[in-house]
Design the sequence.
């Protein structure tokens, strides 16, 4: 049985330690400000920090992790100047709150679908930021954004502005590469691997054709299919 | 034969099962005559009976207890339910009813009430089913005998079934709606009930692709078309006090309360609730009790919970809860969703511990699909679940101190630590709370080297130090002790009877933890203990959480060490898919979340969407025992006792 009041004193000691540590940390930062390896917000929120943790948003901002996800955007292929989306509809199917609407383009003559969306809507007032659309898109055509400051004044009719159409959704792949560097590297590697595979398949096909004359060329080569 | 008074339409269904079924495959009626008319109509494999079920069958006879389709036993004569429940409790030692729900088999024309009985010493739960014929339209069905007098933990769960399905429980002490308000028209979880903005029975909706022109929900479904009124009802001439029944049930010893009700059919009634008038005049000293509403807008009720307390001076003499302010019919949404769609929705149940909820759901679906996650995914799951437990307990303790009056200093110290863990979650999963990390057969992402370093710094350096600091700040503090020791006492046997789970039960001396009693995942590979304390009061509920954080930390540390042997990037068993079909059947699986036992009872008809999606929510069921903990204490302690239960309204109201 300890003396009455020691428990409270011990607790107050903890508070005092927090108080002193905050100033000690700030002092340390001031002294070697020029040599500080990290900007203030990052240092304050690192697990090594012992003092105050608050960051003065919006003056100071924490960098977002690459995986951070907010409402999706469509990726524009800057080389070809067209969206990567083929309007296959997988994103609309996996969307849990069903906030994606897609109109598929049809060939005016044959009435057959063309792999390009005519219209594309995401109702961000419904979107739950789950990231399924980006995760299940087989074409890397839709990605989750880092822009989390979506708000409007009431007179700006937010309920209409927050429905993003194709024009608003399209963002260049350079932007995607800048916020998702690792994912972009993976994408490039995938693409390179696929091209290498195609090339290998084409070579194999050419070889097979060269080895055997006319009859075998009629059969579709299994590796390319 | 299953029901004593079968209605005409169900008789027809049992006589001609092929007429009621769309696909009349081999008729199993002759093969399984004991299963009853409706059970025979279903071409479902019958459950294999466990020894306990066989003993039950022997005791009550095969005409009473029959194997049910897929799992459990079927009680043919529902009037014998109290008898069976008493036998289960006293002879077979199934001392709590862990889950109680219902399923609407609309094609077969009956409701099935499903009970999961549990032993506090562990093992699989025993599934018991009772059937009632489906009534016409919006009518109530035939009553089922209540088991609340036998198992106190059935109280809220039976009220929920009544609320959602319109199945009354005869003998229930206070059968009112629980999540919806009195006066709500309809029974939402019946399959023929449509919610506002109803678009289709199952997702994905055809209107989205390939011709998906955006339309606001409000325009798409005109409001007027979607509200159900009883015939002849005038909403403009409706004024009811939905709490009349509530106050009336607490009215003894309370001064009269005048309530004016307009029923919407042109009738106005004035009633006086309570019997207090005579009492006040006769006595020299007014000793009336008063009813005080705490909440729903009250910072100490941890959300929008409303506690209605009856006070004698400052002492609580009665307490009732009003729930449902955050109700969104999660289970109905879950039945509309595809299997995959539900994972991010489970994050929104108990939003403090998103990934623990995901595990519960994913585990149940994996059980039905018969798949196993990869090694690395198993480790990542444990890592996330245990970090979730630590951050949830930090939060719980911080806000318990808030409730005690230590405004925000402890809470903010602990939220800091919690936020560092959330930083890790954010960098791995993409979101701090709504992580959406678990997948069927795996998880969504692997760690990077930087993330691994981040979590190692937390697990080996920072958090152990901070837990010590937490104890230094609080454990010996005389004010904390004075306010919490002996407060909110609920002994072990009552706790079990109330189906209490989680830290609160372990603080009452019952070593019941799903990770040990019904193991899942790879918890058998770690060296950890289930801490148990015997005080059964608020102080021990605080201390047990500290002890559990230390044990969780041990698991995290071992997990990080063992994980090095697994293959990097191997996080998904099989091919990644979005259009799962789960074989027809049903399953109940549960996990130990920081709040207690979280169970999912899922029924599949073989399609892309769950046929039934029920959540056994620990916060909801833990609240059943609040009354017994609070009565006799001062009103200020009611706040503390609620804080010690650590509820989250997202999970309570669903």
Sequence:
């Amino acid at each position: 049985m300890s003396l009455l009041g020691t428990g409270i004193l011990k607790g107050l000691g903890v508070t005092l330690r927090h108080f002193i540590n905050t100033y000690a940390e700030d002092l340390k930062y001031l002294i070697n400000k020029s040599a500080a390896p990290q900007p203030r917000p990052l240092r304050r929120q690192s697990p090594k920090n012992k003092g105050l943790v608050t960051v003065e948003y919006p003056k100071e901002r924490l960098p977002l992790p690459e995986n951070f996800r907010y409402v999706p955007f469509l990726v524009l292929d800057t080389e070809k100047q067209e969206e990567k989306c083929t309007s296959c509809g997988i994103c609309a199917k996996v969307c849990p709150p069903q906030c994606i609407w897609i109109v598929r383009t049809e060939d005016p003559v044959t009435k057959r679908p063309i792999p390009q969306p005519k219209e594309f809507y995401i109702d961000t007032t419904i979107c739950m930021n789950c990231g399924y659309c980006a995760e299940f898109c087989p074409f890397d055509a839709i990605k989750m954004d880092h822009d989390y400051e979506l708000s409007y004044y009431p007179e700006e009719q937010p309920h209409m502005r927050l429905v993003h159409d194709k024009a608003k959704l399209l963002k260049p792949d350079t932007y995607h590469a800048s916020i998702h560097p690792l994912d972009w590297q993976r994408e490039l590697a995938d693409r390179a691997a696929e091209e290498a595979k195609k090339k290998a398949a084409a070579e194999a096909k050419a070889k097979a054709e060269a080895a055997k004359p006319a009859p075998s060329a009629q059969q579709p080569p299994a590796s390319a299919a | 034969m299953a029901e004593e008074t079968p209605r005409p339409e169900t008789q027809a269904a049992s006589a001609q099962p092929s007429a009621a079924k769309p696909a009349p495959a081999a008729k199993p009626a002759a093969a399984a005559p004991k299963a009853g008319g409706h059970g025979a109509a279903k071409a479902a494999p019958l459950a294999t009976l466990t020894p306990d079920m066989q003993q039950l069958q022997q005791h009550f006879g095969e005409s009473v207890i029959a194997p049910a389709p897929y799992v459990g036993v079927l009680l043919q004569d529902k009037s014998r339910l109290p008898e069976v429940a008493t036998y289960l409790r006293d002879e077979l030692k199934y001392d709590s009813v862990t889950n109680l729900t219902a399923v609407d088999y609309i094609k077969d024309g009956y409701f099935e009430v499903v009970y999961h009985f549990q032993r506090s010493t562990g093992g699989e739960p025993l599934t018991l089913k009772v059937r009632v014929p489906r009534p016409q339209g919006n009518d109530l069905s035939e009553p089922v005998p209540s088991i609340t007098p036998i198992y106190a933990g059935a109280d809220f769960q039976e009220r929920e079934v009544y609320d959602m399905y319109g199945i009354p429980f005869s003998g229930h002490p206070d059968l009112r709606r629980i999540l919806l308000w009195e006066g709500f028209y309809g029974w939402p979880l019946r399959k023929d009930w449509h919610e506002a903005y109803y678009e289709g029975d199952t997702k994905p909706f055809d209107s989205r692709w390939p011709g998906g022109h955006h339309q606001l929900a409000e325009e798409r479904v005109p409001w007027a078309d979607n509200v159900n009124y009883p015939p002849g009802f005038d909403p403009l001439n409706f004024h009811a006090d939905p709490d009349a029944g509530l106050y009336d049930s607490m009215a003894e010893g309370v001064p009269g309360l005048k309530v004016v009700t307009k029923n919407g059919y042109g009738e106005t009634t004035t009633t006086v609730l309570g019997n207090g008038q005579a009492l006040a005049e006769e006595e020299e000293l007014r000793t009336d009790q008063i009813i005080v509403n705490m909440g729903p807008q009250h910072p100490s009720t941890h959300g929008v919970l409303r506690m209605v307390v009856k006070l004698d001076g400052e002492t609580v003499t009665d307490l009732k809860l009003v729930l449902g302010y955050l109700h969104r019919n999660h289970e109905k949404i879950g039945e509309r969703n595809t299997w995959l769609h539900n994972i991010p929705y489970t994050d929104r149940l108990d939003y403090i511990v998103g990934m623990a909820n995901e595990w519960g759901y994913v585990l149940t679906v994996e059980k039905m699909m018969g798949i196993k996650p990869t090694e690395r995914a198993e480790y990542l799951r444990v890592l996330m679940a245990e970090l979730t437990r630590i951050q949830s307990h930090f939060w719980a303790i911080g806000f318990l101190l808030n409730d005690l009056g230590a405004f925000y200093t402890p809470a903010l110290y602990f939220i800091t630590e919690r936020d560092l863990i959330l930083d890790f979650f954010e960098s791995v999963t993409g979101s701090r709370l709504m992580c959406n990390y678990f997948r069927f057969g795996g998880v969504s992402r692997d760690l990077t080297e930087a993330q691994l370093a981040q979590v190692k710094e937390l697990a080996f350096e920072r958090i152990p130090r901070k837990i010590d600091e937490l104890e230094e700040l609080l454990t010996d503090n005389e004010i904390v002790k004075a306010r919490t020791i002996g407060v909110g006492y609920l002994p072990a046997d009552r706790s079990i009877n109330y189906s209490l789970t989680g830290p609160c039960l372990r603080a009452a001396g019952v070593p019941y933890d799903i990770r040990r009693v019904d193991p899942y995942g790879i918890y058998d590979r770690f060296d950890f203990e289930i801490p148990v304390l015997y005080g059964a009061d608020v102080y021990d509920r605080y201390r047990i959480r500290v002890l559990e954080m230390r044990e969780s930390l041990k698991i995290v540390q071992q997990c990080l060490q063992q994980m090095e042997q697994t293959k990097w990037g191997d996080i998904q068993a099989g091919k990644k898919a979005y259009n799962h079909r789960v074989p027809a059947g049903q399953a109940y699986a549960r996990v130990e979340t920081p709040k207690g036992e979280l169970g999912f009872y899922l029924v599949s008809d073989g399609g892309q969407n769950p046929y039934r999606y029920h959540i056994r929510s620990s916060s909801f069921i833990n609240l059943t025992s609040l009354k017994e903990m609070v009565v006799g204490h001062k009103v200020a302690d009611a706040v503390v006792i609620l804080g010690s239960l650590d509820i989250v309204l997202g999970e309570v109201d669903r």
